[in-house]
Design goal:
binds adenosine-5'-diphosphate, 21% strand, Rossmann fold, alpha/beta, 160 residues, 5 helices
Length: 160
């Protein structure tokens, strides 16, 4: 049977425990997961793509089935490039659902051969998102309880 390869796309600015838990759960469904850091040249990020990539690679260093790669352009084109037939997304709230519904249906039009999968967030992570972590960091707080252990956020790591 063909290997089931999935892309988990996002900004991961930075990766949180919510992303981490979701990726580990998805491992029971897919043979390989490529964490895709989508780079949108219009968007401003707090952490460089190199730092975000390094953090994800370190977080999953013991999982050869999980890799990380940054990409420009459409997520469906990135899926085709890495041979993925699946896209994984997380659903935290009904607002997530409405947002994901539009993206999912557009992706289906663009690439009918790619199937999107949605995993409900574990309740303990439903209120966690990268923008809260960024707010804490920007305001000088300690966000370490919200991110994987190897993600060491120090002031000198922020993009100017
Ligand atoms: P985006 O740039 O699309 O907002 P994110 O990096 O915030 O991307 O998130 C990427 C994916 O991870 C999305 O599918 C999102 O729903 C999911 N996600 C974000 N936070 C959590 C969380 N706390 N628990 C589970 N999934 C999450």
């Amino acid at each position: 049977m063909a290997e089931k390869i999935a892309v988990f796309p996002g900004s991961f600015d930075p990766i949180t425990l919510g992303h981490h838990a979701l990726i580990l759960r998805a491992l029971s469904i897919f043979d390989k997961i490529v964490v895709g850091i989508g780079v949108n040249t219009e968007k401003k990020y707090l952490f460089s793509v190199e730092t975000r990539t390094k953090w994800i690679a370190e977080t999953f260093k013991d999982f050869p089935q999980i890799s990380v790669e940054a990409y420009y352009g459409l997520t469906v084109d990135f899926c085709r490039k890495v041979g993925a037939s699946f896209i994984i997304r997380g659903l935290r709230t009904s607002a997530d659902f409405e947002f994901e519904r539009i993206i999912g249906q557009v992706n289906k039009k663009l690439a009918p051969e790619i199937e999107s999968f949605y995993l409900l967030t574990a309740p303990e992570y439903a209120s966690l998102n990268s923008s809260i972590v960024r707010d804490i960091v920007i305001n000088g707080g300690d966000a370490s309880m919200f991110v994987p252990e190897n993600v060491k956020i120090t002031p000198n790591i922020l993009i100017e």
